[in-house]
Amino acid sequence: MKYYYRDCLAYIFQTDSHLVCAPRSTFFSTVTNNTINNNVPVMSLKEQEFWANLFYFIREGYPHHAVEYAEKEQKKYSTDPLVKLHLAIALGNEGKLQDCIKHFSEIKENEEYALSCYVSLVTMSKRCKNYDSIAVKQYEAKIREIRRHASDMSLYYTALCLFLCQKYEKARDYCEKALKANLLCREILSLNGWIDLMSKDENLQKKAIRYFEDPSNDEEALNLQCLMGKAKYFQICNSVTSALDKINIAVVHFPTFLPALIEKMKLQLGAQDWDQAMDTSQRCLSIERTCVDAIVFQLLYLLCKTGDRNEGKRKVDELANSLDTSEPFSAEIYARNSRLFSTLCGREQTILQKLCKLAEKALSLAPTDSRYAVNMGRILVLQDRSKEAIRHFQMTLETSDSSVTGLQGIIQCQLVQGMLSEAGTQLEFLRELEPTIGKSAELSFLSAVLARKQGAPKQQVVNLLDEAFELHSKRCQNLQLGFDYFEALNVDFIVQLVKEYLYQAPQQPPASMWLPGACRRQE
């Protein structure tokens, strides 16, 4: 066995910086299933579902849901330090640093979990503005000490924590070291696959599938994490049918596994199968009545598919209640949903008023985050409350002197209020920054509005509108149909673009313009 591992290492790790994996048949062919079973513990379906739930909800940014789920199931796994490790990460991601440290302190004396605890404590501490630098230095010293003799599973747990903290490149380093120590551990292989899927490198994403294959070549083996990984891989590759095939296997064998149904619903939306996606969302809500993603889809269905704004108002209330129950401390989720639907509701004032409360909640949870101040300002602009909006945009300048989005919001309010000279000065400043920050659709649009109000030639205005439309269209080019697509699409922005184009349209069609007979005015 010793020589087998040495040969595998020589074959797989052909470069220092990246893992290059050979076909499975090359290096798994000499290993029997018994060898693999001795190295990798087999989990029951219920256990797989438990760990996959925790992994999914922390990864997808639902830490409070993960905490509640883990605490509910903790009686069954009360002696398992891995549960406490997940709990600590979820609490840290939720912003509850003291509770997070408490859970880490309970398991950091365990040799296999010590490294992951100290690495996570450094990561969590540095999220705070005024963290204890002396304590962090002590943690880092312990990391250097423990890392010299860390086992494969110790390295794996550290990579897992870093991954769930969205430190993907650092997670890769630890995961590759763990893989060098244990080539056949399915958990390590699967985590390496997830790290590649989260990478911005398309080449790594395309090769991630290799890590989700079963190293035992056992076709009957059912691994939930690998099924979910394969589904995500095919989704990234725009192969919706193949992704649905994998998800359906998970749904059949794990009928109460909510993440599989959520992903199935999103894939059906990506395939533009709205009605099937609606059915799946109902299944999600039958398992968990506060399932945020299911309610978000149903609101999307009402606003974009059926156009039922009256029912949409009720659904926004349901969404708000769901967020208050499922993720009451997540500023990002409140902000994301208010941002998405504020551009899709056609400026329906009742809906905007309800979404404004979500944006206010996000800002109250993270008052120093300029992104949430900008989001609040934009919703106020949609409500024709430009004087209040400008105060929120100005807040971003207090935290960052070069807040481009904040300045754009201020210019938009100045144009609404007829302050053309001030808007022109700010636009000129942003235009000078373009070589550094790049062009943006919003800046070109605001320039077009200012040019029109100042009486510039029509062609100049149209050229700026064309530029704004082209820049905006590029944002959606590589996005699949889904929540992110609709947010990037920003329907309200497109409507405002169309209105500006119409300002430049002639009042009457040119005399030489040919019209079909049916369209000609009958004398």
From TrEMBL:
Pfam families assigned: ARM_TT21_2nd (PF25060), ARM_TT21_N (PF25062)
Tetratricopeptide repeat protein 21A/21B second ARM domain: residues covered: 315-511
GO biological process, one term: intraciliary retrograde transport
Record-annotated Tetratricopeptide repeat protein 21A/21B N-terminal ARM repeat domain positions: 55-278
Entry's Gene Ontology cellular component terms: cilium; intraciliary transport particle A
Record PANTHER family: STI2 PROTEIN-RELATED, TETRATRICOPEPTIDE REPEAT PROTEIN 21 HOMOLOG
Protein name (record): Uncharacterized protein
Organism: Fasciola gigantica (Giant liver fluke)
Lineage: Eukaryota, Metazoa, Spiralia, Lophotrochozoa, Platyhelminthes
